[in-house]
Every structure is written in structure tokens, then in C-alpha cells.
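Subject: Predicted fold for MFS transporter, 398 residues

User T.R. writes:
Posting the sequence so we have a shared reference for the thread.
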Amino acid sequence: MIRTTRSDHVLFVIVTLLYWSTLYVYVPILSPFMKSGGYADDLIGIVLGSYGFVQMLVRFPLGLLSDKMHKRKPFLMLGMITGTLSCLLFMIPGSWLWPLAGRMMSGVCASAWVAFTVLYAAYFAAADATKAMSNISFMTVSGQLIGMVLSGWLADTYGWNAAFSAGIIFGIAGLGLAFAVKEPKEGVARSPISLSHLREVIRTTSLRQVSTLSILAHCVLFITMFGFTPLKATSLGASDGQLTLIVIAFMIPHGLASLVTGRWLVPKFGTWNVIGTAYLLSGSFTVAIAFAPNLGLLALTQVLNGFAQGMYLPILLGLAIQPFESSKRATAMGFYQAIYSIGMFAGPFLAGFINAQFGRDYGFILGGLFALTALVLTLVWKRSASRMSKPARRQLSQ
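User M.O. replies:
I've generated the C-alpha cells; pasting them so everyone works from the same file.
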């Protein structure tokens, strides 16, 4: 545990909020911004999907390097630098390659997140690890919400580049403050990501199942609010400012769901039942986006979909590391995060091509099919887990 003051905690919170704000300040306007530049939906899908593609390649190696160095601050700074560069690249006119480079750079930025969590956890005693992760999860949602709420207002009031300029300001401010973030000279050690443990971790059935469900979950998320939902809103006549209301309609229920699910829903109804119900609801409300005739009903789909998606994502995160002893949890989490990045890439990438061929609403139907697939897998694996647990219960009763 690192000896810290209240000021150290406040500084870390500010840097974390700036980090997520830099990453998300342009997310709601990205697809409308590219559409206004005359780009087709398949190109938009490639740009949106590149964020996840880079994370597939970079997240795990960055985690290995950070653990080997025992240093976290350099990776905080890397996140701020790449987040700033991402926003800068979007402002360069003339070719779709610049937005592609910008979104790929944001994938590097997002890959630095593990360093934030490891350093912040070291500010707390081991017994308070849950409190630390709860705090940083709240910072994540808050930073994303700040950035996304500002996005539409800035674009509506000052033009597209205002959101990217704000991201640059956030990134530079975060980089400057990151120099003052407290980390001891010897760094922060943890049970490291280990290539030697990777084979054993991958062989764990429950991790493979949870990772598959998470891939599908991120397909849905990055087709909807982090993908093509803003384009649906603008096609219904939404101004850039009204996009802010659509974002709020999704993000606030999304954040609240994570609090309600762990405390009340899972203890009362069971883990697999909650996951299955959430996928059923998410799939239904994702398809409903395609048929929303006006902004009011579109906003309603976002409230319900935001809550549904907020139900299963934190449960899957907990299940990913649950079966592993502490020495292997970093490896399991590194694998899990790299794998679910497939969904960040595949969802918008495939939806972009579907949209280009058949029309934009078909991308949301594809998202619904991803959620339906996850529901079927959940029901199958729930039954399998139930059958496996019966012999164990009989043995305990004898």
C-alpha cells in the first residue's frame, strides 16, 4: 500500500476523469461527423472498429510491459499523450485515413487503462480492494459521461472541431497533472500478467464462456451508443445538442444498472438469470432502435437499452477472474480485456458493411442477433453449470 494523502486521491481522480473525457468527448458525434464528410457506412464501420482492433493487439503486451517495469505512471502519461494525438488527428482534413489513424490512436489510449487501475488499487489496503475498484468504476462512468455530454453541445455551438479541441485540452491538462500523481520510485508491483500462466488460464472453461459473452456484449455496445445510434438520431432530425440528451438517456441508466445489479438483482435472482434477462432486453431494445419513428421513442429505447447493457457488463467482468487464485488474476484479466476487444472491432465493422448494403436499420437488427446468440449461449451454459453442480451438492449431503 502506498502512503497517500487526500490531495493524492483528489489528483488521481481528476487525472482519471480527464483521461476518460479525452477518450469520449467525440464519441457521440464521430459517426455523424464522418457522415457529414461524405463517408459511407462501411468506411465509418472500419474507423469505429479500429478502436477495438488496436486494443486486441496492444492491451496484453502493454500489461506485460507495465508489470515487468513495475511502473504505472509512464503508462498514465502514454494514455494522455495518445488521447491528445487522437483528437488532433481527427481535425486534419482531406482523407478518411486521418479519422482512421485518430481512432486507432484512441485504441492505444484505452489500452493504458490497466495502469490506472493497478496504481489506484495500491492507494488502498488489500482489504479495501473492492472499495478501490468501486471508486474507479464510478470515475470511469463519470469521465465518459462528462465527455459525451459535452460532445453534442460543443459541436452544436461551435462546430465539429470544438469537441476535438476540448479533447486536446483535456489530454494536455491530464498529462501535466499526471507528472504529479504519486507513485514510489520503486514502482508498484502486483502478481504480474504471465505468459507461463496464459495457457492454463485459457483452458479454463468458465473464462472462455464469459469472454465469448463479453465479445457479443461489446458487439452490441459498439453498434449502438458507441457506434451508429447517433447517426440514427441525426436521421430523425436531432441537432448536435439533442444528441446530448440521447447520450444522457443511455449513460445514466447504464451507470445506475451496475449499482443495482450487484447489490439487489444478482442476490435475488441469480447470476445466470440476470445475464440472460439482460441479453433478452438488450437485444429487443437494440432492434427497437431500427423502428423508432421519432426522437422521443428513440430516447426511450436508449433508457431501456442503457440499463440492460449496464446489467451484464459488470457481472461478466467479475466472473472473468472469479475462479482464479490471486497470482493468476492479472493474466486472466489481461486475456479477458484483450478478447472482448474483438467485439469492439467486429460489431461496428460488420454493422458498417451491413448498413452500406441494406440500409442503416439492418445494423441494429444485427446487434439484436448478437444479443440473441448471447442469450442462447447463456441458457445452454446455465443448464450445463446446473448439471455439474448437482453431483457436488449430492456429495456434500452424504
